[in-house]
Amino acid sequence: xxxxxxxxxxxxxxxxxxxxxxxxxxxxxxxxxxxxxxxxxxxxxxxxxxxxxxxxxxxxxxxxxxxxxxxxxxxxxxxxxxxxxxxxxxxxxxxxxxxxxxxxxxxxxxxxxxxxxxxxxxxxxxxxxxxxxxxxxxxxxxxxxxxxxxxxxxxxxxxxxxxxxxxxxxxxxxxxxxxxxxxxxxxxxxxxxxxxxxxxxxxxxxxxxxxxxxxxxxxxx
Length: 221
What we know:
By secondary structure, the protein is mainly β. It has 2 domains: about 1-90 and about 195-200, Pseudouridine synthase (2-Layer Sandwich); about 95-190, 2-Layer Sandwich (Pseudouridine synthase). About 10% of the residues lie in helices and about 35% in strands. The chain contains 4 helices and 14 strands. The strands form 3 sheets. Strands 3, 4, 5, 6, 7, 8, 11, 12, 13 and 14 form a 10-stranded mixed sheet that branches. A two-stranded antiparallel sheet has the order 1-2. A hairpin with an 8-residue loop joins strand 5 (about 65) and strand 6 (about 75-80). The relative contact order is 0.17. The model is unreliable at about 1-10 (pLDDT under 50).
């Protein structure tokens, strides 16, 4: 998705949808599209949010505060310096939106410990031997065969939302890793739609919102 220019910098070519939702001297909040990893890896060395940040801010180190899965869309907070990163770590309030299979309760709390699946590096599962994980949710909308949930995480375990909703029998639409179907959307229907934090230098409360992605909206049309 990025090409190398003659001067050695990575030049964005096809990074449509990477918007800046908020920016100050200390923080930038990107609205990350689905399909884009946050960090470069062996399979993704030039098409990540980290690469995009490096192109826009070549003198700054990439310091993401909240990390989203590659196929999760929405807001990603990045500190522009070490001081901001230290102040923001663990202090950001996040709200997620997910389209899940079936009709869920109007509101509820899922309190179930999560551990790594023994024979997998990636997959997580509910296990009494895992770390405590608590997910609060509220149903916003019921479609033909899906529900739209507003989610507030009390803890932040890997794949927590995906694992918890699969555990209660309502996997995320498109999330075939955890039992979801893929006829309505081709990725897990998960979006980080709101973040709230204190600006590290000014002390001002910052609230940032990102509209629900179109592919998730389409599930309920």
